[in-house]
C-alpha cells in the first residue's frame, strides 16, 4: 500500500458558478481609479497656464506701394479694444473727384455696413467718417 494519497486538484469553475470579486475588492479598485484620474486631472489643470502659446499681433501698413488698393486682412480681430488710424492726405488726392471709400472695417456689400463698422469715404466735396 502506498504511504501517500494523491488527490487530483479541483477544476476551477467557470461560468455562473465562478468565484466573483468581492464587493470590497471592487470598491477598492474603483477608489484607486478615481484617485489616479483625479490627481492626473489636477496635474493637467495646474500645467495649463504653462503651456507654450505664441500669439503675434497683426498689423496693416496701407497704402502699399504708393497706390490705393483694397486690402483684406482676416488676421485683424473683429472687435478691437483700441484703434489708431492715420490716413495720409495723398490718398484723398488719388481718389480725385469721383470719391470713394478710403477705409472700411466691413466688406463691401455687408448688411448694415455703416452701422456695424467704421467707414471713411469721400465724395466730390466732403469727407465722411461713419460709425
From TrEMBL:
Keywords recorded for this protein, A-Z: Membrane, Transmembrane, Transmembrane helix
Signal peptide positions (record): none
Protein name listed in UniProt: Arabinosyltransferas concanavalin like domain-containing protein
Region: Disordered, residue numbers: 1-26
InterPro entries: Arabino_trans_N, EmbABC_dom1
Record flagged with keyword Protease: no
One Pfam family linked to the record: Arabino_trans_N
Keyword Disulfide bond assigned: no
Arabinosyltransferas concanavalin like domain mapped to chain residues: 54-129
Species of the source: Rhodococcus erythropolis (Arthrobacter picolinophilus)
Residue spans crossing the bilayer: 32-51
Amino acid at each position: 500500500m502506498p504511504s501517500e494519497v494523491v488527490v487530483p486538484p479541483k477544476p476551477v469553475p467557470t461560468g455562473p458558478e465562478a468565484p466573483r470579486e468581492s464587493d470590497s475588492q471592487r470598491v477598492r479598485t474603483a477608489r484607486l481609479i478615481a484617485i489616479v484620474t483625479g490627481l492626473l486631472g489636477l496635474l493637467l489643470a495646474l500645467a495649463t497656464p504653462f503651456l507654450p502659446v505664441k500669439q503675434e499681433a497683426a498689423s496693416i501698413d496701407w497704402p502699399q506701394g504708393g497706390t490705393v488698393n483694397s486690402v483684406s486682412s482676416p488676421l485683424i480681430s473683429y472687435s478691437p479694444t483700441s484703434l489708431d488710424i492715420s490716413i495720409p492726405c495723398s490718398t484723398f488726392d488719388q481718389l480725385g473727384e469721383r470719391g470713394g471709400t478710403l477705409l472700411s472695417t466691413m466688406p463691401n456689400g455687408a448688411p448694415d455696413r455703416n452701422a456695424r463698422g467704421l467707414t471713411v469715404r469721400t465724395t466730390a466735396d466732403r469727407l465722411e467718417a461713419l460709425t
